[in-house]
Amino acid sequence: MTTNRPHEGAPEGARGTARPAPTGPQPTILTGATVVLPTGTVPNGRVIVEGTRIAGSAPEGAPTLDLSNHWLVPGFVDMHNHGGGGASFTSGTVEEILQGVRTHRLHGTTTLVASTVTGDMDGLAQRAGLLSELAEQGDLAGIHFEGPFISPCRKGAHSEELLRDPDPAEVRKLVDAARGQARMVTLATELPGGIDSVRLLVEHGVIAAIGHTDATYEQTAEAIDAGATVATHLFNAMPVLGHRTPGPIAALLEDERITVELINDGVHLHPASLQLAFHHAGGGRVAFITDAMDAAGFGDGRYMLGPLEVEVADGVARLVEGGSIAGSTLTLDRAFKRAVTVDRLPVEDVVSAISANPARQLGLYDRVGSLEPGKDADLVVLDSGFEVRGVMRRGEWLVGPPVGPR
């Protein structure tokens, strides 16, 4: 806060002299919108932005911005994203990676974890070093290693020749290469070394995620007891839910310790599967992710996902060889709109799934994930049809803002 007190040590005679006007950030009051807060939805609410943060109060006469007939929600948090804007986080240059990050920011994702795909260990370690630099300077929220420690039976769009068992020593190599910026590692925990690798990740403060797995119900429960806390894109790349062999899906849905990722693009999940996940996990344990690849926000065409060629047609990405779904072209604003308008989920639950829950799981909820004083001024303005009309990140408008009622 800027004050009018003289500088300490100023001569007594200087106290009555004219002082320069305050030069610090001046608050702006965002008014009129329907604001989604952790305590509930507030019609005609207000949020105060001061500099890069959300403030608790503003002086009388502070400038206001009228957001009537809009929704005001926290910036989106994507904990599983491989690229966008034509750029891959696994193979792109620094400028290409930043272009991918900017693409997703324009769609409301103000916090993004960069995910890699399966590659050789030396290449992944080198990539971790590059991505960690971007995380250290605040462009990324960390690194997620999806592969190579996954099941060949459930490999999806990962190169089978490069897959390996989760040897704790090799898992540690990637964590060390990330220089404190590793946020999550996806593992097929039923493979040799899987449980020991979960314990190693927990010891180093890294999320152990169960995914691309052929585990049984019992094996999955063992991994959860060892410390795994995330289900990587639940339902996808794992055995189906069976009445005699419930497999990993039942274990992951029923355990309160697990946050389940969902790709809500209308391709990866049937609406009934999404409803099943929300019914059993509740609004507090679902995290919407994009699992986006290069084509997100860019367009159809041919792309590379690691060493594998992908054809994107009508917004759906599939491997050229074999036809497996290869990530998505989703942006989180589309996931938000679909959840409300197609799946008919309460807006409060959608905000939890797209902002608060992933922020909590990543250990970032003290800074992002909700519109509370002291947190980063990351927010999204949506119109009545849930289209993005404004995006603010750390107090700077990247999209908009909309001006006046619409």
UniProtKB/TrEMBL annotation:
Has the keyword Metal-binding been applied to this entry? yes
- InterPro entries, alphabetized: Amidohydro-rel (IPR006680), GlcNAc_6-P_deAcase (IPR003764), Metal-dep_hydrolase_composite (IPR011059), Metal_Hydrolase (IPR032466)
Organism, per UniProt? Answer: Streptomyces apricus
Give the family this protein belongs to, as stated in its UniProt record. Answer: Belongs to the metallo-dependent hydrolases superfamily. NagA family.
Q: Where is this region: Disordered?
A: 1-28
Q: Which transformation does this protein catalyse, written as a reaction?
A: N-acetyl-D-glucosamine 6-phosphate + H2O = D-glucosamine 6-phosphate + acetate
The answer to whether keyword Metal-binding applies is yes
Task: Give this protein's Gene Ontology molecular function annotations.
Answer: metal ion binding; N-acetylglucosamine-6-phosphate deacetylase activity
**Domain of life of the organism encoding this protein:** Bacteria
- Gene3D superfamilies, A to Z: Metal-dependent hydrolases, Urease, subunit C, domain 1
Cofactor(s) the protein requires to work: a divalent metal cation
Recorded metabolic or biological pathway in which this protein acts: Amino-sugar metabolism; N-acetylneuraminate degradation; D-fructose 6-phosphate from N-acetylneuraminate: step 4/5
Question: Which gene name belongs to this protein?
Answer: nagA
For the ligand (substrate), the binding residues are 157, 236-237, 244, 268, 325-327
Which terms under GO biological process does the entry name?
Answer: N-acetylglucosamine catabolic process
Q: Which residues bind Zn(2+)?
A: 146, 212, 233
> What is the enzyme's main class?
hydrolase
Query: What's the protein here called?
Result: N-acetylglucosamine-6-phosphate deacetylase
Basic and acidic residues bias spans: 1-10
